[in-house]
Amino acid sequence: MRSRLALLVAATTTLVLLAFLIPLGLLLGNVAADRAIGAATREAETVVPLVATLDRATLTSTLDLMREDDNRKVPLTVFLADGTVLGVPAERNDAVELASRGSSITVEAPGGREVLIAAVGLPGGTAVIRTFVSDQDLRAGVARAWLILGGLGACLLALSLVVADRLGASAVRSIQHLDDVARRLGEGDLDAQAKPAPIRELNEVGTTLNALAGRIRDLLARERESVADLSHRVRTPLTVLRIDAEALNDHAEAERLTRDVIALERAVDQVIIDARRGTKGGDASDATEVVRERVEFWRALADEERRTVTSQLPDTPTPVAVGADDLAACLDALLGNVFAHTPEGTALAVELRPRPSGGALLLVSDEGPGFRDEAAALSRGASDVGSTGLGLDIARRTAESSGGGLVIGNGDQSGGARITVELGAPLRPEA
Description:
Main location: membrane
Domain HAMP: 169-221
GO molecular function, one term: ATP binding
Cofactor: Mg(2+); Mn(2+)
EC number: 2.7.13.3
Radius of gyration: 50 Å
CATH class of the domain at 280-423: Alpha Beta
């Protein structure tokens, strides 16, 4: 935009300068020619009274003295009525003949212009005083004037470009600021505000953008409160369920159900916390520890359903840009899908691979029927087995919040589903 504005101003200014300077230059050329011809005419007119009053010898001497005078640059020639030529030698041409009839004229001649003054009323007849103005004298000072005009035009063009560049820079800075605010809003920073811009239209855009950010904050606040309230309502039936579990006669079964209810209560509490604090950022955890703990948690249920669970985890910590609770929820959603959508006895595998660039790859695979429609499986709320269809969406959002992504597919030879969660590396704290 900045370069295009400068180009537009340059083109417009150039056209205006050409429309102004070219006629002015031509006018200056005409003025210089008129000035030279006027000076030559006045010089010739000074000889008219001399021709009328001096004898031929004195007139000849006077013309010679005038020719030797350095202050008189114009050559003078006198054509008498009897054909005698005095002063600077010159040809008696048709223009001289025309002037001898009593007309003072100026005519074009090779290399310049001739100025012919008729001296009428003399005893011997009409005499003609001729002077010659060369092309160089006609254009005297014109080249210098063109240079001055050209320099003035260049200065005006440069000044207009500087002003256009400053105006363009101001507009570009305002647009870049609006772009930065819009990008920050898109990344979840709802506190981003557009500053007043020097351009009225851009200022209106900034005001609208600020109003939009405020509206988004209000809507998100309402949504968070709604989620928190809904989650809070779940606590009552959970409490009843916990009391019923503790009242079972089978102590081992009661302890197992109570433990599950407590875990569910913790999950509900976390939902309330997350809903009230809004978008999270900057969290990190050790993926190795989290994955190991969740695999052991699900291994007990896998043993009951005669499922073989294989896990491959690194021996060293694997830091990722996801909080421990979020990563646990992500893995629980993926493993829960395996248990919900594959027959009992279906084997599953969990693998965690550190990435060379930081972060990790979390792979969950099973030997079940796989995905019938991989594209539809990632659609939020879409499910063809009667579930809510949010398990994969939870995993996708967890991966994207860390700067990674989610890839789903079916096994190559053994069949089954294969899900890869790309987890980004946590940011290093600044020194």
